[in-house]
Amino acid sequence: MQVMRGWATRYAPWVGLVSILGTAQEALAGDYEGSPQVAEFVGEMTRDYGFAGEQLMGVFRDAERKQSILDAISKPAERVKQWNEYRPMFITDARVARGVDFWRQHEAVLARAEQEYGVPAQVIVSIIGVETFFGRNTGNFRVIDALSTLGFDYPPRAEFFRKELREFLLLAREEQVDPLTLKGSYAGAMGLPQFMPSSFRAYAVDFDGDGHINIWTNPDDAIGSVASYFKRHGWVVGEPVVSRADVRGEQVDEGLTTGIEPTKTVGELRALGWSSHDALRDDMPVTAFRLEGDNGPEYWMGLTNFYAITRYNRSVMYAMAVHQLSEQLVQARGVK
């Protein structure tokens, strides 16, 4: 991440309120020249957040509308993969080996994050492994291009991405970085942990204490930020993540949870023919789900920490991949 002396010299300081609505069309150039949407957005940013309008015009003059981004987000959804197809995408010998290396390289920082936030090191490592293969695939789109394209040229989710664009400009000002230099996914997810700008501003931390939060190239900050995210989303120290279940009877499927929220209890599931492999209290809330494994259906109870993982990505298969990769990492390191 380029800390901005360049930002300070290339653009006016992030202060001041200027009138821009009358000059927007002549100030803008390039892909967003004359865009009334951009003019309105810049007006809001100057009025509500004290940005210098001329400076934002300079940013949007350089922002590019990317058809490849619109193509990517508009593609018809792929056929939903079954668990026995999804799992091998993330739990591979190469990813485990790279994860062990990452853990060893950053062992002291991971231990400190676990101590401070209560989130196990292997879970932090697993998230970074699933999201970006430990930094190998962090995205090649400029974040300003991704969020501008989707905020101004993708009506189905324009409101969401315009909010993220606002958050992105605020974080660039707060961190004193050039918004034209930061890269991410086609949807604007950033860095080793793939935080959206709103998540960055809410949960990212300066874990190495250098005065800046850099989740792009600083593993310390990425590690601390993932741990911070999970603590803020209800991770419970020392509790398990999931429990395998055996099932019997005709009412088994009545126990399956609709959605990912833990709306059932262990006792309710037991009455429907579920029995956990682990000792769980009857009053424990769980997410009950079935996956198609290599050897047929698998029934699982997701506990509070499982739900915390789904807050990162609202998918039971994602959460299972993170959990099982974390288990593989522990086994590969020989950690008990």
Keywords:
336 residues, alpha+beta, Helicase, Ruva Protein, domain 3, five-stranded antiparallel β-sheet, 9% strand, disordered N terminus
Query: What proportion of the residues is helical, as a percent range?
Result: 40-55%
Any guess at the CATH architecture of the domain at 6-70 and 139-228?
Orthogonal Bundle
CATH fold name of the domain at 6-70 and 139-228, please? Answer: Helicase, Ruva Protein, domain 3
Structural class: alpha+beta
Order of helical and strand elements:
HHHHHHHHHEHHEHHEEHEEEHH
User: What is the global morphology?
Assistant: globular
Largest sheet: 5 strands, antiparallel
Read across the widest sheet, the strand sequence of neighbours is 4-6-7-3-5
Number of strands: 7
CATH superfamily membership of the domain at 6-70 and 139-228: Bacterial muramidase
The CATH class of the domain at 6-70 and 139-228 is Mainly Alpha
Uncertain residue ranges: 2-29
Overall pLDDT confidence = 91
Radius of gyration: 23 Å
Q: DSSP helix count?
A: 16
Beta-strand content bin: 5-15%
**First CA to last CA: what distance?**
36 Å
